[in-house]
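Repro case for the chain-ordering regression, as requested:
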Amino acid sequence: MNISQDATATGLPAKTIRYYEEIGLIRPERSDNGYRTFTQTALHQLHFLARARALGFSIDDCRSLLMLWEDRSRASSDVRKIAAAHLSEIEAKIADLTAMQNTLKNLVQTCHGNDRPDCPILNTLSGVSSD
Amino acid sequence: MNISQDATATGLPAKTIRYYEEIGLIRPERSDNGYRTFTQTALHQLHFLARARALGFSIDDCRSLLMLWEDRSRASSDVRKIAAAHLSEIEAKIADLTAMQNTLKNLVQTCHGNDRPDCPILNTLSGVSSD
DNA sequence: ACTTGACCTTCCAGCGACTGGAACCCCTAT
DNA sequence: ATAGGGGTTCCAGTCGCTGGAAGGTCAAGT
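-- result from build under test --
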């Protein structure tokens, strides 16, 4: 299987797959002409990576998860630890974004959005406390 | 006022303030020794930027907002447009993250997290559909 | 006067995870 | 022979800083 077929199979762009090789996440074999060839196992790994990245895991986490996946003597607690840490980061981000969302929603609702300069959004940003 | 006093006043690191000058967001004056000096106006701008960045606006948005702020003949609709666009990006991000959160929460709850290899997190990532 | 140490300056490199593009090789079909 | 659609490498850029090196300046202490 060539890289572009892989790309469509896994949903990852070919560029990304090459990048994953470059940083040592995967080690696809090469055929005589120098083209990358992907075995079934390699395809599985790419699928795994695609799903892990889609869940927001960092490349470093992906590396660890991949190693754990391939380690049959792993402890599931190690996997869970990574996932739990990632989950709490996500929850922190959601909290941050939700705070921004609340403020912005409020401001956007309050602003008349007409052709006059008067604007509660700018007032807030400039520190004119209208809260 | 020197840059580090500014930094503590606005909460922005000195490095960031220099960076803002480098990219043309602000134009602090210089005293004879080459040090940046910040007028009251410049300080206001920095505060403005700090608040806008804290609300997640991109540097480009900040640039536009700053220009609008200083433009007395602005239309508040232009400000609102920027804020509304940003708000919907934030909402999209929250939606993405919440989806991840739900999946991860579920997986973390399901995983025993012990010393055995059996792990629903890895199962899901590897495509063993347990959903 | 001299030194110390804290500040300031510039410039350059690196982060994460790609993404775009240039320049070139390979394979197949016409 | 050529045209096209693959593949390859390598280098630069994205965003918003952040760290560090190398050096200039200032205020205080000896």
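Ordering looks correct now. Chain A has a mean pLDDT of 95.
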